[in-house]
Amino acid sequence: MSKLDISNVVRVTLLSALRGLADANTSNLALFTDEQPIRAGFGESGTYKSAAAVAEDFGSGSDAAALAEAVFAQSPNILTGNGSLIVIPRDAAADDAPAVVLSTGPVDLATLTAEDYAIGVEVDGAALATVDIGDIDASSIEDAEDSLNVAAITSAGLVFKLSGEVSAANIRLETVSEGASSAIVVGTAGSGTDIAGLLKIDGATATGAAAGTERVKDAILRTMGLGYFGIILNETPEEAVFLELARMVQTMDKLLFIGSSDPDTLAAASDFLVAKNAGLTHTRCLYYSASAADALLFAAGYAGRALSINFEGSRTAHTMHLKEVVGLVADDLDQTALDAANRAGVDVYADFGVPKLFTSGANQFFDQVYTRLAFKLRLQVAGFNYLAQTGTKIPQTEEGLSGLKGAYRKVCERFVSNGTFAPGLWTDSTTFGDPETHKSNIAGFGFYVYAEPISQQSAAARTARVAPPIYIAAKDSGAIHSSDVVVFVEG
Predict the structure, then answer these.
(1) Residue 40, strand partner residues
(2) Which 3 state secondary structure label does DSSP give 135?
(3) 448 forms bridges with which residues in the sheet?
(4) Is residue 264 in some structural domain?
(5) Residues 80 and 113 in one domain
(6) Could you give the angle at which helices 398-417 and 366-388 cross, rounded to 10 degrees?
């Protein structure tokens, strides 16, 4: 007798959970060193959870081992945020490298609608020249790259390289030539519509490198996919190298910690002051006068303590002001040096009877820069995962938009929980949607998530399946760093 399949009655489909992205680990710290490991078969990098393991690979007397000790000696340290120390030896036999300029942020290529774009640029030491580009075909990222690389650009000794997508393209401008004589200085076009500012490369400068030990800049570009967030070095770069490196790191979701013992870094027109005035907040400038080696240890210890926030925790956010760096004594600073450091936005390790970090916030307070980058990265992952972990589709309706806002709202709630944001009074003139709703949400929750109604979308946006812009307002919890006391005594 034949039997009928049970699926005529009951049908079962097994579904696997769709994959999403993990949050970026903002406690991972990279150490770039010109030392070479003593362990055979080391590879591109090593990942460590202890200073002893670094000493095994690089030797107990190495810079890498000493800096690792400074990182892991702090309490809390990067391990608290589930981070690791990633040691990256710079290539000792690197080839000649071109000069490379990166955009300071993503560019929406669809906004480039003029037909007479041009760029003013000095290439390899030549005088400033205006190079005509013409119009930009933004049909795809590849078409846009082809549009930029017209014959005049290649004849000038340049090449554009684009990545990302049309609405958020990353711009990279390189010299065709390689070596120490390669250079780019982006100026102002003498005719046409200047495209440099639109591509977010205006005012940029870059130099190439001769064959030999790889520059830190090139090592970072080579290893950006290793998942590190913070960067420390086993050397203090020279002024021109420092500023180029700081400008590049500003274009990335990373933080660079630079230690110096040179008192000139606190002087007027110093490279640290230039970095502050240029808004290079992703570079944290640190001064410790004892010696060059101790200044590097200060930077390593500072980074180890600074990147310790576990953003999944409760009340874990911190400020670096008045914290201690384990393993270092207080620097011998007078009030004049402290005032100079405050003007330059440089953090120091001062003696208040006990050693304490002191920061003016002139180059923004560290916690402001760190927590906002962490917030940005987690918002990106939350939005991506909401869109990518849906087995069917998210309808382009208020219901679908509400779900997307909910994903972002959860990140906001997490940052209220960890102490980055807090309920308070909204005093800025900028509001979204109904002003009273905006203010009441900030007062009640510490944040407000708003989007224009789906019904108000343009036909082009709807056809492209793009969600309406989502606006988030959040109230920084701030921090108390000092206090004034007024005492009245009645006789």
Answers:
(1) none
(2) coil
(3) 473
(4) yes
(5) no
(6) 150
* Matching residue, tokens 């519509």: 193
Give tens-digit pLDDT for 250-304.
Answer: 999 999 999 999 999 888 888 999 999 999 999 999 999 999 999 999 999 999 9
Q: Domain range for residue 415?
A: 396-491
Please indicate, yes or no, if residue 3 is contained in any of the structural domains: no
Separation CA 134–CA 122 (nearest Å): 19
Q: Is 122 left (phi over 0), alpha (psi -120 to 50) or beta?
A: beta
Residue 349's nearest CA partner among 315, 305, 314 is 305
Q: For residue 211, what is the enclosing H or E element?
A: none
* Whether residue 428 sits in one domain with residue 354: no
Q: Answer yes or no: do 203 and 230 share one domain.
A: no
Give 164's contacts (C-beta < 8 A, 6+ positions apart). 106, 141, 170
CA distance linking residue 208 with residue 177, whole number of Å: 8
**CA neighbor of 255 nearest in space, from 145, 147, 363:** 363
- What is the pTM for the complete model shown? 0.91
Distance CA 291, CA 31 (A): 20
Rounded distance between C-alpha atoms, residue 409 and residue 136, angstroms: 37
Evaluate whether 238 touches 114 at the Cβ level (below 8 Å): no
Our count of domains for the chain comes to 3
Alpha carbon separation from 184 to 125, 157, 404 (Å, rounded): 8, 10, 42
Place of tokens 């107990």: 60
Q: What is the CA radius of gyration of the chain?
A: 26
Task: Give the helix/strand (H/E) hosting 336.
Answer: helix 335-344
